[in-house]
């Protein structure tokens, strides 16, 4: 029987000495060179013939990409080359960014997370990316080095379609910054997949809630959906309902229905569009309910 995946194509590995060198090479070889971080997605897509790049440009370790730090006044900064397990293991992440820690633990296997990076997950721009929703709800901003120097890219406007972002030829993502989250916040990430370990999300729902005495309900909720639209999807209409009305089962059900109506999933081998839409409603209702219960218990 013929192996449908015969192996990686022949590629050239490039190890630049500086960001400037890496950026110039990537720009000069646009369409045939790709920045390389953890490689967990890169090698699979090259093996399957989806990506046909001739060069892999290793940018790990350049100018702080291998560092992760927490500042109690400014927040968390994750270098582009930092593996997910290293981030999840940080006490500061588990204490201040529990939604991100929970999302990381759902990504594939522990062994893969020793290589996979959060910034790589973001830059691949898969609508099914498990950590993207949490990073969006925490207000994540990418630091990017390009031809015109360093700039910031808020995740709220970063994604343009499956595999498409604001990154241009020669751009290198250096780090992700997450500001300090609201005090007393609670998060929940729920994912459904074909198996419990190692599979992409058929649907993913991220919810973050926190007390806010200035709004009618007394709480604010942020909601992000994965694998049900061309890009990771925020649902502001559902969030608005949870702010403007008293929180009860009916209000949560209304918000969940809005989330369902807001998404535009596809049919594929992992699940039908109809199944995904119904799961968005059910999972949003469940995630918001769990967050609300924890918030009220802590109040």
Give the secondary structure arrangement, pairings included:
Layout: E1 12-14, H1 19-28, E2 33-36, H2 42-47, E3 55-58, E4 68-71, E5 75-79, H3 84-88, H4 91-96, H5 98-104, H6 110-113, H7 118-124, H8 132-137, E6 141-146, E7 149-154, E8 159-161, E9 164-165, E10 172-178, E11 186-192, E12 203-211, E13 219-226, E14 233-234, H9 236-244, H10 249-262, H11 273-298
Parallel strand pairs: 1-3, 2-3
Antiparallel strand pairs: 4-5, 5-10, 6-7, 6-10, 8-9, 11-12, 12-13, 13-14
Helix pairs in contact: 9-10, 10-11
Based on CA inertia axes, which overall geometry fits?
A: globular
Number of strands: 14
Estimated structural class: alpha+beta
Question: Order of strands in the sheet with the most strands?
Answer: 4-5-10-6-7
Average of pLDDT: 92
Taken as a percent bin, the fraction of beta residues is 15-25%
